[in-house]
């Protein structure tokens, strides 16, 4: 399988998985209208991926995030999963579109991108899972200290030229 | 979506989720914003550092013939930090066509290493110039973008195939002082007999004409015609209105380019001008060029190989033009043309050109090499009776036009472009044709 076909396969599968997760949750709870809406948007996302309009990927991602936000009322885990899938689909589709203009794409380029995306998913997945599993009660002073720490680290990053 | 737009899209989406989550007091919405925030954070961590690149272009040859494949290679060296993703886009000049490979490349480029972009092009005619190489550097996620144009120059001259002419006999009104191959209408050292005169001390005895000496009872010597170089100006007609462009090929034979080569009659004029420039400079003449069409492209007359190169470049780069001011030949800047020089007009002749060319004949020797537009176009027409009649009428009109020019003492070569130019010219402008013309006029 060449690089671009593989990327397109990943993107379409992720769109289906993202919208499918939400649809399954709503189907399980008997919310037929919401499930149908998720299914339709999922199909539209896949169909749009065959077209030439790159901006439709961003629109589909926004729709998925919005539906996931609504989906949090039923299942927060599924909503997080579908946002993660949407992020994969959006990023990989745009990357595949970017590579379309090139005659030869080295495998290393694709794998470097997928590795970076994998790291993001791992990080955000684990942070999300931690946030959903743990409940931490912090006092105002702890919050203030953490905010101050973030401010310091951010300014250090800026000084590094970022 | 790359660079700031991607960053703005993700940042806005994350901000909206957090805002809505805060307003609705839904912590789950904050969790949904986490993947987006992580994406941006990782992107920030791997942001681009300084980009220092150096590009160099090499061509397999600096001069190529029509349709000859030329390999273009661009090498890019990274003098800065490692670049995760780099896109190279080379703009192929319009006169060239891409045959193999691609003028775009995407790759990652570690520090101190090089990548190369290679493709094969070919062209019909013209001067192709590359100036820059477009480079786009991004991080893997595409959050940071830097676009630049690296100087990376290159030049390729695509010369159409042209014939080597063998012989053109010409008699310009004036010649220059250097010896050459043009009859100077002056007696002196030479090969061809010119006349006889009285013997002067210092004349070689072998040139004594004994019969004339005996007849006149005083020493008479033979004199020969001096051969010198001449000023030759090639006038290339590049007016769009005088050009004939053929429609799409109709038959497989024509698709292969057999019979009539090329799609525009102007290309044949260009080939003829190249052949003439090559011939006249090789003969040692002082040759200049005026391309009349898009603008007045004037190449000052000169001698030798450098001049031949200048003429070649000018002719190869010639473009057609449809400027109203150059619609007729009457705006030819005659002040530029050396007095008494030999003018060689190359182009299909229009009726409105005749008067100007005849006027030029008053001050210069004029020679016309005219690719026949009627024969050229007729090869692409379906032969219906109406077309046949129209062609006959046009042919007669052209014959009358050429006869008018010939009556004015202008030598005209009516060139059927399906025939080799060298053969046509040696038949009509060679020594034998010259002699035949003299016999017809009763001068021999």
Strand and helix map with partners:
The complex is a heterodimer of chains A (162) and B (444).
Chain A: H1 3-28, H2 32-49, H3 55-71, H4 76-99, H5 107-133, H6 140-159
Chain B: H1 4-24, H2 27-45, E1 53-59, E2 63-65, E3 70-78, E4 83-90, E5 96-101, E6 104-109, E7 114-123, E8 126-138, E9 145-159, E10 179-198, H3 210-216, E11 220-228, E12 231-237, H4 252-255, H5 265-282, E13 286-292, E14 296-302, H6 304-316, E15 342-346, H7 353-361, E16 365-371, H8 373-378, H9 385-407, E17 411-415, H10 421-429, H11 431-441
Parallel strand pairs in B: 2-9, 12-13, 12-15, 15-16, 16-17
Antiparallel strand pairs in B: 1-3, 3-7, 4-6, 4-8, 5-7, 8-9, 10-11, 13-14
Helix pairs in contact in B: 1-2, 5-6, 10-11
- List how many beta strands of chain A DSSP finds: 0
Radius of gyration of chain A: 19 Å
Relative helix content of chain A: over 70%
| Total number of helices of chain A | 6
Distance between the termini of chain A: 37 Å
**What integer is the average pLDDT of chain A?**
87
What pattern of helices and strands is seen along the backbone of chain B? HHEEEEEEEEEEHEEHHEEHEHEHHEHH
Percentage beta strand of chain B: 25-35%
> Which structural category fits the helices and strands of chain A?
mainly alpha
Q: Name the beta content range of chain A.
A: under 5%
Q: Ranges of chain A with pLDDT <50 over ≥5 residues?
A: none
Task: Tell me about this structure.
The complex is a heterodimer of chains A (162) and B (444). Chain A is mainly alpha-helical. Helix content of chain A is 81%, strand content 0%. In chain A, helix 1 (3-28) packs parallel to helix 3 (55-71), helix 2 packs antiparallel against helix 3 (55-71) and helix 4 (76-99) packs antiparallel against helix 5 (107-133). Chain A is flat, with a radius of gyration of 19 Å. The two termini of chain A are 37 Å apart. Chain B contains 11 helices and 17 strands. Chain B has a 6-stranded mixed β-sheet with strand order 14-13-12-15-16-17, with helices on both faces. Chain A binds chain B through residues 54-55, 58, 61-62, 65, 68-69, 72, 76, 79-80, 83-84, 87, 91, 94-95, 98-99, 101-106, 108-109, 112-113, 116-117, 119-121, 123-125, 127-128, 131-132, 157, 161-162, and chain B through 1-2, 6, 9, 13, 17, 20, 26-32, 34-39, 42, 44, 46-47, 49, 84-85, 87, 101-102, 104-108, 140-142.
């Amino acid at each position: 399988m060449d690089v671009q076909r593989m990327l397109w396969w990943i993107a379409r599968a992720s769109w289906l998985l993202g919208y499918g997760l939400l649809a399954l949750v709503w189907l399980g709870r008997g919310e037929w209208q919401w499930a149908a809406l998720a299914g339709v948007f999922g199909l539209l996302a896949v169909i749009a991926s065959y077209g030439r309009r790159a901006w439709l990927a961003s629109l589909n991602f926004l729709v998925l995030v919005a539906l996931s936000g609504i989906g949090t009322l039923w299942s927060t885990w599924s909503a997080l999963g579908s946002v993660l899938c949407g992020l994969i689909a959006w990023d990989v589709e745009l990357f595949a579109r970017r590579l379309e203009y090139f005659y030869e794409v080295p495998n290393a380029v694709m794998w470097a991108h997928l590795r970076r995306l994998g790291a993001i998913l791992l990080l955000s997945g684990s942070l999300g899972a931690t946030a959903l599993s743990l409940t931490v009660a912090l006092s105002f002073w702890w919050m203030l200290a953490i905010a101050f720490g973030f401010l310091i680290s951010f300014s250090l990053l800026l000084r590094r030229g970022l | 979506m790359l660079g700031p737009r991607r960053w703005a899209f993700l940042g806005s989406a994350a901000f909206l989720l957090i805002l809505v989550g805060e307003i609705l007091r839904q912590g789950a919405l904050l969790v949904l914003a986490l993947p987006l925030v992580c994406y941006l954070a990782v992107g920030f961590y791997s942001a681009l550092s300084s980009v220092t690149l150096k590009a160099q272009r090499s061509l397999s040859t600096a001069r190529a013939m029509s349709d000859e494949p030329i390999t273009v290679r661009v090498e890019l060296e990274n003098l800065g930090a490692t670049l995760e993703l780099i896109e190279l886009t080379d703009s192929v000049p319009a006169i060239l066509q891409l045959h193999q490979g691609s003028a775009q490349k995407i790759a990652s480029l570690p520090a101190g290493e090089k990548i190369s972009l290679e493709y094969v092009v070919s062209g019909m005619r013209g001067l192709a110039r590359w100036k820059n190489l477009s480079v786009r550097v991004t991080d893997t996620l595409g959050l940071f973008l830097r676009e630049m144009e690296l100087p990376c120059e290159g030049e390729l001259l695509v010369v159409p195939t042209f014939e080597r002419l063998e012989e053109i006999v010409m008699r310009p009104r004036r010649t220059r002082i250097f010896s050459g191959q043009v009859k100077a209408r002056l007696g002196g050292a030479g090969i061809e007999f010119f006349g006889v005169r009285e013997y002067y001390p210092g004349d070689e005895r072998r040139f004594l004409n004994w019969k004339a000496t005996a007849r006149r009872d005083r020493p008479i010597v033979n004199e020969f015609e001096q051969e010198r170089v001449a000023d030759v100006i090639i006038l290339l007609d590049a007016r769009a209105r005088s050009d004939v462009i053929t429609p799409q090929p109709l038959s497989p034979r024509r698709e292969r380019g057999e019979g009539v080569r090329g799609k525009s009659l102007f290309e044949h004029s260009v080939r003829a001008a190249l052949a003439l420039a090559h011939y006249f400079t090789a003969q040692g003449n002082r040759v200049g060029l005026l391309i009349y069409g898009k603008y007045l492209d004037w190449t000052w007359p000169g001698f030798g190989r450098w001049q031949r190169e200048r003429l070649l470049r000018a002719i190869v780069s010639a473009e057609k033009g449809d400027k109203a001011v150059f619609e007729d030949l009457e705006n030819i800047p005659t002040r530029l043309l050396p007095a008494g020089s030999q003018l060689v007009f190359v182009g299909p002749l229009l009726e409105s050109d005749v008067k100007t060319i005849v006027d030029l004949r008053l001050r210069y020797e004029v020679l016309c090499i005219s690719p026949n537009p009627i024969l050229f176009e007729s090869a692409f027409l379906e032969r219906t009776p109406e077309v046949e009649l129209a062609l006959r009428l046009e042919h007669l009109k052209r014959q009358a036009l050429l006869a008018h020019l010939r009556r004015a003492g202008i030598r005209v070569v009516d060139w059927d472009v399906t025939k080799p130019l060298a053969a046509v010219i040696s038949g009509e402008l060679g020594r034998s044709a010259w002699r035949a013309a003299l016999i017809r006029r009763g001068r021999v």
